Every structure is written in C-alpha cells, then in structure tokens.
Amino acid sequence: xxxxxxxxxxxxxxxxxxxxxxGVIPIAIKELLAGMDASTxxxxxxxxxxxxxxxxxxxxxxxxxxxxxxxxxxxxxLLATLGLSSNxxxxxxSLYFVNGETSEVVIQLSTLFLILGGVxxxxxxxxxxQKIGTFLIILGLLLFFNGRLKEFINIDNRETFGVLxxxxxxxxxxxxxxxxKQLLVNFTSPQILLVIYILxxxxxxxxxxxxxxxQLSTTELFLLLFCxxxxxxxxxxxxxxxxxxxxxxxSAVLTLAPLFTIASLKILVxxxxxxxxxxxxGFISIIGALLLxxxxxxxxxxxxxxxxxxxxxx
Length: 314
What we know:
about 325 residues, mainly alpha, about 0% strand
C-alpha cells in the first residue's frame, strides 16, 4: 500500500486549493446553464480532464495495462462510469432549480452515504465518532433548511426537485467511490479516472450538444473554460495532496467546500447587491452548514482516530 511522505504544509494547502475550487464551481455552472445544457457542460469537463490525464499518463508511462482488464474489472468500470457521470450530471442539472449554497451543502450527504455503504457492504465498524458525525450532518441539514422544510413536502416545488437531484448525485457518487475501492486493487486512481472519463465522454455524447459552444457569449465561454480548468487543477491538487498527506486529512479539508461557496456568494452579493443566484442565508442556516461540515470532518478523520486509539493501546 502506498504510504505518502508526510508534508503537512503542502498537503494542507493543496487540499485547501481543491476545496476552494470545488466550492466555487457551482457558482460558475449556475451562470453557464443560461447558455449551455447540463449534459454538455459535463461532457466538456470530462473531455478536458480525460485528454489531460491521457497526456500525463502517457508521458509518465503509466497508462493502464490491457492484461489487467478482466471481465469483473470491466463490469466494475462500467458501473463506476455510470456512477461518476450520473453524479456530475445530476449535480449540474440540480443547479437549474437550486443555488450554489444549497448544492454544496446537500452534496455533503455523500459522506454519510459512504459511511453507510462501508458499514453495509464492507462490514466496517460504525463507531462512536461516526455516530456523532452522522448526527451533526443530519442536524446541520435540518438547521440549514430551517425556513424551507414545509416547502419540501410539495414535490412540485422547484427547490424540492433540485434537492432530490442532489441526493441522487450524492448516492451515485457513493456507488462510484465504493467501486473504486475494488478497482484500486489493479489500477491507480488516475488510471481509473482516465478510463471513466473516456467512457463518460462516449456515454454523454448522445445527450450533449458540443457545437453549442459556438453560440456562447464571451462571458459564457470564459465560464466553460473555468469549469474545465477547475476540474483539471482541483483534481491535480487533490491527487498531489494524497502524495503528501494522509487521505483522511485531505478529505477533512475538502469538506470545507460548502463554506467557500457560501463565502464566495456573500462576497458577490456585497459587490453586486442585485445578484439573484443566492439563498441569502440567515444565521441559523449558516450554523447548520457549519455543523454539517464539522460532522463531515469527524467522519473523514475516522482513520486518524482509529490509529491513535491503536497506538494508545499498544
């Protein structure tokens, strides 16, 4: 198993950069949806990331070996492709109906789903720290939506539909993450993503309109370019952070993404008071977002707690 050489400063700042980039991406996608549909946005993000990964892996001579593609691996790769492409699509599509703050908060359910998936599929323990984290995630969501809970009873409500899309996005990402755990036996994470990106480009092509890029305004072209670069840089920082720092610590920093979304939109509203794509969160909602992030951090740091506990016992 790969053991990263610990460089805490580099690991932290690389993780923080990825968290910031993933925190602002829903704001850019929300604006871009005015000129390009969700499927096409995701298609361009995948093809940009796929080409960059292909060049990098070819240059470093680390392309996946054909002899490792057995029947089970191919099935897992196809299912993982369906999971990750669905996650990207439903997340982007949800932004037709909800704003950036809501999207980043609700997508944190993927943390909770991943815990439950580990418990039920891999028979992992469900210890006290995870129970506390789960409670805080649920409480944080309830507080975040404190003024809108009654509206969610109506399935015809636009925001209700958007939140449902985000729940599906979190669920499909969990499926991808659980499958990747099996695929890592034969492939590295970049190799897995390369295959998934290529398959996703083919999967999404029938529902995409690549030529619509020529109808975008200058601002929308810049936003599309930002989304593609964001995907590349954020993943690059994430991958490099894993080489410098423990995965659990990297994951803990990444859970800060909703706070960067909220902060970015607060700054936008301060500069442009008429900016409309924001939930204008109150104090209780912000407290809810903080509790959700704390709960996610606790669950992400679970391996660290377990390691320290074992060291104390020894």
